């Protein structure tokens, strides 16, 4: 395994471990998701550069678009929960109540 693939794999796994283990604040979960998506963006950008194909060059842009949409939706949820519950602690949220 080359050092580039190892570093990309390590960055994705660190984001995944941060998402799985650090579930106290909603903002930290959103940052872990964003780091995972940026790692996938870099990996797909490098993949399209190694293929030298024009047809596969749209995949990183689509992934970056979905990443921006995920970030904006996550920040909207963060603002809504901080206004309704007073903080972004995930333990204070009860998903069974409306």
From TrEMBL:
Pfam families linked: Oxidored_q2
GO MF terms, alphabetically ordered: NADH dehydrogenase (ubiquinone) activity; oxidoreductase activity, acting on NAD(P)H
Function: Core subunit of the mitochondrial membrane respiratory chain NADH dehydrogenase (Complex I) which catalyzes electron transfer from NADH through the respiratory chain, using ubiquinone as an electron acceptor. Part of the enzyme membrane arm which is embedded in the lipid bilayer and involved in proton translocation.
Name of the top EC class for this enzyme: translocase
Entry keyword set: Electron transport, Membrane, Mitochondrion, Mitochondrion inner membrane, NAD, Respiratory chain, Translocase, Transmembrane, Transmembrane helix, Transport, Ubiquinone
Compartments where found: Mitochondrion inner membrane; Mitochondrion membrane
Cellular-component GO terms for this entry: mitochondrial inner membrane; NADH dehydrogenase complex; respiratory chain complex; transmembrane transporter complex
Reaction equations catalysed: a ubiquinone + NADH + 5 H(+)(in) = a ubiquinol + NAD(+) + 4 H(+)(out)
GO biological process terms held by the UniProt record: ATP synthesis coupled electron transport
Main subcellular location of this protein, as a coarse class: mitochondrion
Membrane topology: Multi-pass membrane protein
Record-annotated membrane-spanning stretches: 6-24, 31-51, 57-80
Name of protein: NADH-ubiquinone oxidoreductase chain 4L
Taxonomic source organism: Isurus oxyrinchus
Gene3D superfamilies with a match to the protein in the record: 1.10.287.3510
Family, similarity comment: Belongs to the complex I subunit 4L family.
EC number: 7.1.1.2
């Amino acid at each position: 395994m080359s050092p580039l693939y190892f570093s990309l794999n390590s960055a994705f796994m660190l984001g995944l471990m941060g998402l799985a283990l650090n579930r106290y604040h909603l903002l930290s979960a959103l940052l872990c998701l964003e780091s995972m998506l940026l790692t996938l963006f870099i990996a797909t950008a490098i993949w399209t550069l190694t293929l030298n194909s024009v047809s596969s060059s749209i995949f990183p842009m689509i992934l970056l678009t979905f990443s921006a949409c995920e970030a904006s939706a996550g920040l909207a949820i963060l603002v809504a929960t901080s206004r309704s519950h007073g903080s972004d602690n995930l333990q204070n949220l009860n998903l069974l109540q409306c």
